[in-house]
Amino acid sequence: MIENLTPQQTWDLLQQHPDAVLIDVRTKIEHDFVGRPLNAFHIPWKEAPDWQVNGQFVSLVEKQVASKNAPILLLCRSGQRSLDAAKALEEAGFKRLINIIDGFEGPLDSHNHRGNIGGWRFNNLPWVQS
């Protein structure tokens, strides 16, 4: 089963479980220029310009995670790609998968802008930008 947690709930879980792994599944451009959570591994689920699923995604995650029972927290821009990535990991036998709802930037506001009503950055959780 895939859990859905808010960014704040995710941060709290990371503090309580040293074996938890945070994986940023966004593209390299998003990761480098929009910003990224501290201590997150960057493993893109899809990459521009063709937006095909990364065929090595599961094997790359396996290299970063000591146990398929460890909590794996997945983050994208707004929560959809991370959910798709979690489903692929579930099929590969990972047991504790967490989709971070609202992702890094959160949902669109009334002006079609992200970052104003939710997400990792909006919640002032630790992040950096290149």
How would you summarize what this structure contains?
This protein is α/β, with parallel strands linked by helices.
Specify the structural class. Answer: alpha/beta
What's the helix-strand series? Answer: EHEHEEEEHEHEE
Shape descriptor: globular
Radius of gyration: 14 Å
Any idea of the CATH class? Alpha Beta
| Main sheet properties | 5 strands, parallel
**Relevant CATH superfamily:** Rhodanese-like domain
What is the topology, as strand order, of the major beta sheet? 1-8-7-2-4
**Head-to-tail CA distance between termini:** 35 Å
Strand content: 15-25%
Average pLDDT, to the nearest integer? 95
CATH fold group? Oxidized Rhodanese, domain 1
Tally of structural domains: 1
Number of strands: 9
- Which CATH architecture is right? 3-Layer(aba) Sandwich
Treating each run of at least 4 consecutive H or I residues as one helix, how many helices? 4
